[in-house]
Design goal:
Elements: E1 2-6, E2 13-17, E3 25-26, H1 29-35, E4 40-46, E5 50-53, E6 59-65, E7 68-73, E8 79-84, E9 87-94, E10 109-110
Parallel strand pairs: 3-10
Antiparallel strand pairs: 1-2, 2-5, 3-4, 4-9, 6-7, 7-8, 8-9
């Protein structure tokens, strides 16, 4: 299945030729800061499946922690994907940047020990203080132990 996405201003577009991995909601402080929200929602895919169209050259990258690279639009600031220098063949797509339909549902909440005080988690998904158990959610392209 193909997925399409873009940044807020439309300067950067991308296509994923393949299926995105399962995902969860990450409530860690880093995801809060990177998303500007209470949590991040990201799904992994092989980098070889990702095609980025950036005719104006506005894609920027930021190393938010050692070995963690976050890619975003330098014009509008939209976060698009992230990757680890230890596994550059995998990228994690920011699901909020998708323009195409994505019908998977979240498998878990992770890092709820860092969740925002103003956020209420009121669904029935499993919750984990840090990383999810791999038998519940395998977070492709992340640092999940």
């Amino acid at each position: 299945m193909n997925h399409f996405g873009s940044c807020l201003c439309g300067s950067i577009r991308y296509e994923v030729d393949g299926e995105l991995s399962d995902f969860g909601y990450c409530h860690c402080r880093s995801c809060q800061k990177a998303s500007g929200s209470a949590h991040g929602a990201n799904a992994g895919v092989d980098r070889s499946s990702l095609r980025v169209l950036d005719p104006e050259g506005t894609l920027l990258e930021y190393e938010s922690s050692p070995g963690k690279i976050r890619a975003f639009c330098g014009k509008c600031g939209s976060p698009l994907f992230a990757w680890l220098t230890g596994t550059p063949e995998l990228v994690r797509i920011r699901l909020g940047s998708l323009d195409s339909e994505f019908t998977k549902t979240a498998k878990a909440h992770t890092f709820v020990s860092e969740s925002a005080a103003w956020e209420t988690i009121d669904d029935n998904l499993p919750q984990f203080d840090t990383w999810a158990d791999r038998n519940v959610l395998e977070q492709t392209g992340s640092r999940q132990p």
